[in-house]
Amino acid sequence: KIVDRIDTDKDGYITHSELQKWIKHRQRRYIEENVNKHWKDYDGNKDDKIAWEEYKNTTYGYYLGEDFDDIEDKHTYKSMLARDERRFKAADKDGDGIATREEFTAFLHPEEFDYMKDVVVQETVEDIDKNGDGKINLNEYIGDMFTPEDGETEPDWVQTEKKHFVEFRDVNK
């Protein structure tokens, strides 16, 4: 059934192009459904816009008045709030503190929007940079992809990635 849906020219085969179109279609549909689901949760005043305050209060509301004091790991919540605010502001193209549906989509799925690439890169570096020095070293780079279990031998692809890191990715050495 799914092959018939992907095979748009109905020749009985799925071409690279047909598969690529199908994947993009499914991804767009997932994003649209995800935004619609969250939209209802965050548009508290039902004005068909989501202000930063609406998002913040819905996501962090209970904790905001307490300044996260009753949470064990309040540093994590404060950093999540700051990260969300930075991303919301980046998605908010007109800077009015209120997200349209498109801006909210960019907030939830920044990887889909060219103007959000800097935020995606910044968040990725922050996630991988375990020692907080603003750089990703070889161990952090590999650790993001592979952490050996006790006694587990390192797969060949890890050696290849290490070599690529040293030879190609760390351009300034």
UniProtKB/TrEMBL annotation:
SUPFAM superfamilies membership: EF-hand (SSF47473)
Residue ranges of domain EF-hand in the record: 1-29, 79-114, 116-151
Key words, A-Z: Calcium, Metal-binding
Xref: InterPro entries: EF-hand-dom_pair, EF_Hand_1_Ca_BS, EF_hand_dom
Organism superkingdom: Eukaryota
Signal peptide: none
Xref: Pfam families: EF-hand_7
Gene3D superfamilies registered for this protein in UniProt: EF-hand
Similarity section: Belongs to the CREC family.
Protein name, per record: Calcineurin inhibitor
Lineage: Eukaryota, Metazoa, Chordata, Craniata, Vertebrata
